[in-house]
Amino acid sequence: MTRLKDAVDHIAKAVIKQRDLLDRLDSIGDSDHGTNMARGFNAAIEALDALEDDSTKNVLHTIGTAFSENIGGASGPLYATAFLRAASVCDKDTTFNIENVEKLLGAAIEGIKKRGHSDVGEKTMLDVLVPVYRCFTPEQAKDKTLYQCIEAAVKAAKKGIDYTKTIPATKGRASYIGERSVGHEDPGGMSSLIMVRELFNFLKY
Ligand SMILES: Nc1ncnc2c1ncn2[C@@H]1O[C@H](COP(=O)(O)OP(=O)(O)O)[C@@H](O)[C@H]1O
Ligand SMILES: [Mg+2]
Fold first, then answer.
1. In angstroms, how far is the first alpha carbon of the chain from the final one?
2. pTM over 0.85
3. Ligand 1 proximity of 187 Cβ (cutoff 6 Å)
4. HSE-up of 5 (CA within 13 Å, CB side)?
5. Relative to the alpha carbon of 76, which ligand is closest?
């Protein structure tokens, strides 16, 4: 296994482990976010196992395809779009450095916004992913290593999830309960936080 496949494997297993937490947080929706993410990541692990070309581009494309083919609901197509859009801006030898992470995350977020007709402030994964993205922009990344940017991104993601608690959902199923969603963390934001945190943990040990 390459280091990238190892990292994805670590992140995927960590998200699958949090299935019950994510299902519970999705009580503001239909209590299936953890189940959906586990289905997507289990399919991704299987597809990655069989993968011969393990370039960044192909790994991201494979995850996106696994999500798009195996998850219904909102988060499946949205995360699928994110991974596929990130793959589409890679060339065949793209590796991870600050500049590339900014580019890939930027494309992923644009994909989610377009597909979801959504933006920050609506209690979605974007309230975590956009602050994470900002940690890799030239202003924020100045004088930092990639590792330090990812460390900052974990902090930004935690702030993002706290922010989702303070606002009502205006997109997705949680919007059906409107103001009653205030006080709850967004499940999609939490799955994004787990992915960023576990990337950091993978690099740390
Ligand atoms: N339009 C949207 N734009 C961005 N994210 C969204 C949108 N709709 C839902 N989400 C995200 O998807 C999560 C819910 O995912 P999930 O429960 O798997 O799908 P579903 O809501 O269809 O059951 C939400 O917590 C939110 O973060
Ligand atoms: Mg749901």
1. 17
2. yes
3. yes
4. 17
5. 1
- Break the chain down into helix, strand, coil percent, rounded to 5: 75, 0, 25
Q: Which domains are seen in the chain, by residue range?
A: 3-204 (1.25.40.340)
Q: What is the pLDDT of residue 2?
A: 74
Short-list 199, 204, 197, 108, CA closest to 160: 197
As a whole number of angstroms, the distance between CA 79 and CA 63 comes to 9
For the Cβ of 73 lying below 6 angstroms from any atom of ligand 1, the answer is yes
Q: Which residue has the tokens 């991974």?
A: 83
Give dist(CA 192, CA 79) in Å, integer. Answer: 10
Cα-based distances in Å from 165 to 73, 124, 189: 22, 11, 10
Query: Which amino acid type is present at position 31?
Result: S
C-alpha 31 to ligand 2 mean position (Å): 5
Q: Rounded to whole angstroms, what are the CA distances from 82 to 64, 92, 128, 143?
A: 7, 18, 14, 28
What are 57-96's pLDDT values in tens digits? Answer: 999 999 999 999 999 889 999 999 999 999 999 998 999 9
CA angle (170 as vertex; 167, 176 as ends), nearest 5: 105
User: Does ligand 1 lie within 6 Å of residue 40's CB atom?
Assistant: no
Torsion of CA 196, 197, 200, 204, to 10 degrees: -170
Is 187 strand, coil or helix?
helix
Phi-psi region of 79 (alpha: psi -120 to 50; beta: other; left: phi over 0): alpha
